[in-house]
Amino acid sequence: MSIDTNSRSTTAVEAPDYSFWREHTTIALSPVAAPSILGLFGFAAATFMVAANLAGWYGNAQTPLVLFPFALAAGGIAQLLAGMWSYRARDAVATAMHGIWGSFWIGYGIYNLLIALGVLPPAATNATAASAFGFWFVVLAAITVTGAIAASRENAALTAVLGTLAIGAALLAVSLLGALPVVQTIAAYVLLVSALLAWYVGSALMFEATFKRAVLPVGKRTAAATDSGALPNNLIQYEAGEPGVKAGQ
């Protein structure tokens, strides 16, 4: 079988042995739950706790020592696992977003441990640390913006999660690079909104999986089958696509 991908034609030319392979192909299904349920809950928990600390709701000099294991486990390990399972479920947005933010949270947890042990200086009191940390948020904001754009094709609520996360990351970059505590407080509240939205979307996905119907609206979008420029599917495959539930579906 051959498909002309250059012209994006949907006409497939069958090879002489196509029927044989079609009839003798075995497809093994391996359904998975939506990985973003775990990823969004892990993100929501870690982001809420850290953002609340940045907003001044709680905390003292001992807080980094208490925060680091939970930020590393919930925000880091849980999200990174969700990102890898999203890869299996063929969810590109969740793979990228959970993967990059999970990796960041692991690093953030280790960094806070080193702060608590006195090995590294905190970004709040050291210009060099603040500058390096600030540039990390520049990169994270840029990556998250692209994720929000991609998510807008599938799910309005997920777009809101990533959009507010990108804004919060950008504001944190400004606050750290410019030494502006007021901007950090604003960023903290934006991130709190992102955490609450993530909790909502994660709950919506979990309820939909258990009740077998949409319970909480998330603004799903379904791509038209006749979208201009869409590539044809390989005909030797499971008709409904690869098993696994995407974050936007």
Overview of the structural elements:
The protein has 249 residues and is mainly alpha-helical. Helix content is 63%, strand content 2%. It has helices at residues 18-24, 35-54, 63-88, 92-116, 127-151, 156-178, 181-211, and strands at residues 2-3, 12-13. A two-stranded antiparallel ribbon has the order 1-2. β1 and β2 (12-13) form a beta hairpin. α2 (35-54) runs parallel beside α4 and α2 packs antiparallel against α7 (181-211). The longest helix is centred in the last third of the chain and has 31 residues, at 181-211. The chain is elongated, with a radius of gyration of 22 Å. The two termini are 30 Å apart. Mean pLDDT is 81; it is low at 1-11, 224-229 and 231-248.
Mean pLDDT: 81
Strand fraction equals under 5%
- The residue fraction in helices comes out at 55-70%
Strand count, sense and barrel status of the largest sheet are:
2 strands, antiparallel
Helix/strand-derived category reads: mainly alpha
Principal-axis shape equals: elongated
Give the end-to-end Cα distance, rounded to a whole number of Å.
30 Å
